[in-house]
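Give me the fold.
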Amino acid sequence: MFNSTADLDLPPLPNYQQTPLPPLVAPIPDKLLTLLLPIAAYWILSLFFHWIDVNDYFSRYRLHTPVEVLKRNHVSRWEVIRDVLIQQVVQTVVGTLLGLTEPDDFIGKEEYDVAVWATRIRITQRAIPAALSVFGIDALRLSQSMVGSYPMVAGALAGGSYPSLAKTMSTDAAPAITVPSFAGWEMMLAKALYWYLVPTFQFGLAILVVDTWQYFLHRAMHMNKWLYTTFHSRHHRLYVPYAFGALYNHPFEGFLLDTLGASIAFKLAGMSTRQGMWFFTGSTIKTVDDHCGYALPFDPLQHITSNNAGYHDIHHQSWGIKTNFSQPFFTFWDRWLGTVWTGGDVSARYERARIAAQRKADQENKTGSASISQPMPDSDRVSTVYQDDARNAKELSSVPQEAQQPTVPLGKASQQAAASRQQILDDNANGGVRVLLEEAEEEQEAKRVLRKSTRRKTGSSTPQSDSLKGLRDRVTGSMHGRTGGIIGMESRR
């Protein structure tokens, strides 16, 4: 069979014979590899970041110190590992069911599919004369004047008519016949579409679907008190994110936000099993990288998009928890809908938390006691506007801004920080007011340290000032060479 259509002006489509696609890694079937690769990528990349963490490599690029991981988080590492493994079991079950709905992949039809695209290009050219006539251009006359010097252009102007392009074909059952053939440029364009442009569109569509799905569900988890306290607050026990905590979620949230969202994107984009393999694995790598706790200048994932570890880390802080919802790829929804953090430079806030965590660890070492994310009794704390939990939970906006501890920037950021604090207050099971009391103590401790530093001679360099400068350097240089002032963001007031 040379042509499955009745249009004799079109070149015939080639015959093809399909055979099963060999597995990418023999003898593991591609569908099984699609389940295994994201899990393997998750733990390999997480262990890499853990390795550089425990060996103190690239410490200058850390967003937080190891002491902060121990003292500010409200969950142990073993609990994190347990919940991540549960989510990966759910992910594997859903992936197995998804694989049952997918046909097996075959090879051998590629030339036929390229020819189909070339046929579509040829048919599209039939609209050129009518389109040019709208502008008063006689395409047929123009084509006749160019047929000698530019035959391919002339053929396109004539509506895809190439009388000189023909080839002879024959089969065992039929004599040789002359049939139309495709122009070289048509085949080049068809191959580019089939091999590059269409797959790029599929991956772009899948990324758009995942970003949209996760943004609105993630935002809903923060806007609805029941959803937050019941499900999403578990993930926010990690005030200092680290790589293998990226998928630390409530099992239902992990299924809804990550597993189901990626599965829907895969289906809507019409991906093959092997495309899905790379999409799922790439999404996993990006999610781990966003929680790694490092602003590495040589990490391409932190420069390709504005959604990087620094950007997402702000969302994990008590003052930014209701901002920067976008994940895992781009930040356009945050920017379009006004949920991006607008508080400007956050380097001092990060330095404040580092100082307080180190002082707390030093005090525990002296007394011989140790705790991980165990808050001190409220009676032992400094007096702050957050001691009256019931009043602040209802009347936070009535507290004068100059009296609020820790302090917040002016403008829209004050509303963002107030909403974030309200979310913390509502979540009594995971700290509630105690988290804000810790924040107030941290700020007062940092102010005491900074007051001592300012008493020293002008121009003198101290470890504290050097540390703050280093943090600011990696904060402001987190992405695309911007010098905005907050991690991965430009200042907006």
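Confidence is low (pLDDT under 50) at residues 372-399, 457-469, 475-493.
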